[in-house]
Amino acid sequence: MLGNSLMTVETKGNYKSGFVTIWGRPNVGKSTLLNMLIGEKVAIVTPRPQTTRNRISGICETEEGQIVFLDTPGILKPKQKLDEYLVKSARSCLRDADVVLFVVDGTTTPHSDDKRAAKLIRNIDKDVLLVVNKIDIADIPNLDAIIAEYKKLGNFKGGVAVSAVTQINIPILIKKIFELMPENSAYYPEGTVTDQQDKLAIAELIREQVLLSVRQEIPHGVAVVVKEFESRNDELDYISANIYVEKQGHKLIVVGGNGRMLKEIGRKSREGIEGLFGKKVYLDLWVKVSKNWRKDEAALTRFGYK
Ligand SMILES: Nc1nc2c(ncn2[C@@H]2O[C@H](COP(=O)(O)OP(=O)(O)OP(=O)(O)O)[C@@H](O)[C@H]2O)c(=O)[nH]1
Ligand SMILES: [Mg+2]
Q1: Which atom of ligand 1 approaches the CA of 74 most closely?
Q2: Which residues are annotated as a binding site for GTP?
Q3: Quick one: which atom of ligand 1 is closest to the CA of 164?
Q4: Which of 28, 77, 170 for a ligand 1 pocket mutation test, highest count of atoms within 8 Å of Cβ?
Q5: Under the phi-then-psi rule, with left for phi > 0, alpha for psi from -120 to 50, and beta for the rest, what region is 89?
Q6: CA distances from residue 159 to 19, 128, 151 in whole angstroms, order as listed
Q7: pLDDT in tens, 132-161
Q8: Which residue, 72, 148, 180, 201, is most buried by CB atoms nearer than 10 A?
C-alpha cells in the first residue's frame, strides 16, 4: 500500500495507528492541513485549484499512536485525461483508509465539486469526519448556517471547524481522529515523516514555484520531471529537471525576457530543495513543449501520472 518502506513496528499496548485519507474538492486546504498536522512541508501548496496531483503521505506521531495521513488530489469533474488520473489517484487512497477527513471551505456554501466529492464517499464503509477549514477568514455569524449545508452532504461521525493556517482546533481534530483509530502497532519507524521519493519531492517543489510565478491557464499544463539527481561531493548535489508546458507561447512566458522568469523559478526552487536536503544544490532547469500532454496517455505515463 505505501511502498517498500511500509512495515509494522513493535509497540506497547493501547497504541493506536491507522490511515487517514484527506479528501475534498480542489483548493479547500487539504495539503495545508497535511503539512500542519505533521509539522513539516511535504505537500506543495498554492492559491490555485488542482495543485496536488499524487497521493502524498505524512506521518503524525503522538503518545497515543501514529496516524498516516494521505493527501489526495482535489475531486473535480474530469475534463482531460490528467483529471481522470487525479480522481483515480484520490480514489485509490480510500480503500485502505481507517478514517476519511472530508475537508470543505468554511468561507463558502457547498460547490458542485464538494457535492461530487461527497457523493464518492457517501456509501463507503468508513468513518468520515467533516472538517470545515479556513475559519480564520470565515464570516463567523454565517458559519453555523454554512456548516449546516455541509452536514447535509454526508453521514458524518462528527466534525470540527478548523484553520489549517492559524492552527485553530487542530488538537481537537487529532483527538477526534484517535477516537476512531484502531489499536495497532505503528506502521512506520519512529521519526518517519513521509514515504515520498526524493525525485518526486524535488519535482513538486519546482512545480510549486512555476505555479506561483505564472498566471492564467499555464499552471494546469505544467509538469516537472527530474532527470538527474546525484551527489557531486559532500557539499553539493546536482539536479537536472525538465519543466513541460503545452505550448510554445507558454514556454516563452516561463522562460521570460532574458530568461529572467526561469532564473527566478530556479533560485526559489533551489532554496526549497536545499532546505529539504540540508545541502547545496546545483539546479539545471530546462523548459520543453509537450503539446496537449494532459490528453495524452503516453505523456501522462512519462511524466509519472500513471
Ligand atoms: N486563510 C486560510 N487559507 C487557507 C487555509 N488552508 C488553506 N488555505 C489556502 O488555500 C489555498 C489552497 O490550499 P491547498 O492546501 O493547496 O489546497 P488543496 O485542497 O490541497 O488544493 P488541491 O491540491 O488543488 O486539491 C492556499 O492559498 C492556502 O494558503 C486556512 O485555514 N485559512
Ligand atoms: Mg493539495
Answers
A1: 25
A2: 24-31, 71-75, 133-136
A3: 31
A4: 28
A5: alpha
A6: 18, 9, 9
A7: 999 999 999 999 999 999 999 999 999 999
A8: 72
**Structural domains of the chain ordered from first start:** 16-180 (3.40.50.300), 198-302 (3.30.300.20)
Residue reference for cell 490528467: 82
The 10 Å Cβ neighbour count of residue 59 is 24
Cell 491507522, located at residue:
18
Decide if 2 contacts 68 (C-beta within 8 A).
yes
Q: For ligand 1, which residues put their CB under 6 angstroms from it?
A: 26-32, 45-47, 49-52, 73-74, 133-134, 136-137, 163-165
160-172 pLDDT, tens digit each:
999 999 999 999 9
Mean pLDDT of 50-66: 95
* Number of C-beta neighbours around residue 147 at 10 A: 17
Residue from 183, 196, 191, 194 nearest 61 by CA:
191
Residues 176-207 pLDDT 10s? 999 999 999 999 999 999 999 999 999 999 99
